[in-house]
């Protein structure tokens, strides 16, 4: 028996173009569709998850919806997560988002000799990433997984931060476990987050320091030695090469400062001598309207209830044995 398509949200007819990549809980593919008003072909990067990871996708959509119009955050389309049936009859969940034709910052650096970017580009890119973090922190969130793969490059070489699947509220430590002390990707995590489970804005700034080093060196942080958790707990930092410009060294050192140091924040770094261009502070203004973690928890509870209903419906229509294989 086929699943009744009346349970599936209506949306634009998307035509698959190519596969772009896969993350921990979702894949991303390029789709094209016809614009309703102009009839022209448009492109969207569609993030797709199965029912097992749907809650994470819904949560990311909830967060992205708070950043509508923010120029340094990747934009999602529509007012809800799309629920579709794939060709194999399985229920999928999709978020259409704007397509970054230049790929991720990781892809972009591959075009350069030794994957090292020119100094002026690094300064400009760093400023744009900081502007995005200002928006995120202003809304009371910590991205938790800032790295070149999650920074997208758009036409005109404009950067936007993407992938909010692991993002958390500032101060949330409920995720931390001694057996798995990572909120995001281990080599980009800060000492405080590893040893104490602190999810503060300083975590993103530490990760930013790692990204800046990568843009200069073409190598991932901790390339000079085997990465160990104990290194972070002892206060070690990734190697800062001697050949970096002095102001770049000081900037990265500031990123690696202790979480308790109050001088370590987005606005202090935006005024750093490393960033010579004037910062457009107006794009950081619409940062009020914070949702409390309680409101978000209630919303996620509704989503969990909805997913539970879908699982139950799918088991009835596909048969218990097959549904166990799916879920």
TrEMBL record:
<dbReference type="InterPro" id="IPR000719">
    <property type="entry name" value="Prot_kinase_dom"/>
</dbReference>
<comment type="similarity">
    <text>Belongs to the protein kinase superfamily.</text>
</comment>
<keyword id="KW-0808">Transferase</keyword>
<keyword id="KW-0418">Kinase</keyword>
<keyword id="KW-0067">ATP-binding</keyword>
<dbReference type="GO" id="GO:0005524">
    <property type="term" value="F:ATP binding"/>
</dbReference>
<protein>
    <submittedName>
        <fullName>Mitogen-activated protein kinase kinase kinase 20</fullName>
    </submittedName>
</protein>
<dbReference type="InterPro" id="IPR011009">
    <property type="entry name" value="Kinase-like_dom_sf"/>
</dbReference>
<feature type="domain" description="Protein kinase">
    <location>
        <begin position="14"/>
        <end position="275"/>
    </location>
</feature>
<feature type="binding site">
    <location>
        <position position="47"/>
    </location>
    <ligand>
        <name>ATP</name>
    </ligand>
</feature>
<dbReference type="InterPro" id="IPR017441">
    <property type="entry name" value="Protein_kinase_ATP_BS"/>
</dbReference>
<dbReference type="InterPro" id="IPR008271">
    <property type="entry name" value="Ser/Thr_kinase_AS"/>
</dbReference>
<dbReference type="InterPro" id="IPR052751">
    <property type="entry name" value="Plant_MAPKKK"/>
</dbReference>
<keyword id="KW-0723">Serine/threonine-protein kinase</keyword>
<keyword id="KW-0547">Nucleotide-binding</keyword>
<dbReference type="GO" id="GO:0004674">
    <property type="term" value="F:protein serine/threonine kinase activity"/>
</dbReference>
<dbReference type="Pfam" id="PF00069">
    <property type="entry name" value="Pkinase"/>
</dbReference>
């Amino acid at each position: 028996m086929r699943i009744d398509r009346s349970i599936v949200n209506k949306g634009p007819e998307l035509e698959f173009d190519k596969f772009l990549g896969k993350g921990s809980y979702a894949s991303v593919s390029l789709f094209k569709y016809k614009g309703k008003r102009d009839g022209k072909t448009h492109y969207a990067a569609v993030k797709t998850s199965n029912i097992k990871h749907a809650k994470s996708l819904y949560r990311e959509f909830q967060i992205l919806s708070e950043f509508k119009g923010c120029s340094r955050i990747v934009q999602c389309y529509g007012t809800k997560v799309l629920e579709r049936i794939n060709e194999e009859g399985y229920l999928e969940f999709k978020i259409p988002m704007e397509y970054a034709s230049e790929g991720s910052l990781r892809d972009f650096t591959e075009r350069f000799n030794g994957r090292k970017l020119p100094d002026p580009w690094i300064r400009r890119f760093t400023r744009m990433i900081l502007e995005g973090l200002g928006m995120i922190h202003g809304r009371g969130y910590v991205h938790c997984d800032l790295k070149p793969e999650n920074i997208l490059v758009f036409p005109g070489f404009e950067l936007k931060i993407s992938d909010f699947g692991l993002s958390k509220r500032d101060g949330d430590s409920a995720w931390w476990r001694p057996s798995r002390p990572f909120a995001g990707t281990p080599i980009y995590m800060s000492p405080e987050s590893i040893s104490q489970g602190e999810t503060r804005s300083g975590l993103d700034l530490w990760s930013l320091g790692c990204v800046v080093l990568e843009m200069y060196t073409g190598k991932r942080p901790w390339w000079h030695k085997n990465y160990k958790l104990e290194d972070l707990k002892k206060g070690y930092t990734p190697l800062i090469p001697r050949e970096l410009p002095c102001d770049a060294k000081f900037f990265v050192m500031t990123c690696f400062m202790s979480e308790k140091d109050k001088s370590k924040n987005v606005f202090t770094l935006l005024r750093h001598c490393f960033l010579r261009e004037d910062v457009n502070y107006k794009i950081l203004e619409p940062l009020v309207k914070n949702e409390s973690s309680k409101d978000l928890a209630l919303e996620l509870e509704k989503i969990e209830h909805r997913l539970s209903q879908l699982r139950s419906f799918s088991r009835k229509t596909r048969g218990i044995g097959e549904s166990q294989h799916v879920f």
